[in-house]
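Notes from the 1:1 (GR / supervisor)

We went over the backlog. Supervisor wanted to see one worked example end to end before approving the batch request, so GR pasted a single chain during the call. The sequence is below; no edits were made to it. Supervisor asked that the structure be written out right there so they could see what the output format looks like.
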Amino acid sequence: MKRLLKRNKILFFLLFFTILSILFGIFFYANLDMESRGVVASNIDHMIHGENTEPLSFFFNRAISDGLIWIFGISIIGVFFVFFLYFLQVFFFSFEFTSMVSLLGLRKLPSILLSFLPSLFHLFFTFLLSFYSISFSFYLFRFLFLHKNYSFSPIVSKYIKIFLFTLLGLLFSSILEGILLPFLSKIFF
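Structure output shown during the call:
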């Protein structure tokens, strides 16, 4: 029961951190000057018209950032980097979503939500990976400094399976984004 409560504390803290990151993304966009908003509008126009729709490009970019989250989860100090990388991914998602809603208006909200569906899948897998990375780091901390005895074989095995599951999810979301975004941009935008 104690372990479940501790894991829930990590889960609730990560959810709070997610909400905070989303609010930062919205706040950052709201405080941009008109020149910067013009640059953002230009970038969104490039994104809508599918100038970079290679699924492998999406996959490798996301795999690098999620791979870093996984690697930093292996160390105790890496928890701070896991939080930072997770914050950046949620912040960028929130910033892009807010920018598109601001530029295209609420009447395009259903098509915007559809175009962000692959990114939502990616955020789900990143959330899952970040949760397990932080949990793994806390296991290491308790093992090394509080002298708790753990059988690390099942913990490491589960950690590796979570990473492989995340990579499969990233591949799915990248293919979806590489195929869905160009199709939706032709129909809805």
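Supervisor's comment: The longest helix spans residues 152-187.
Batch request approved.
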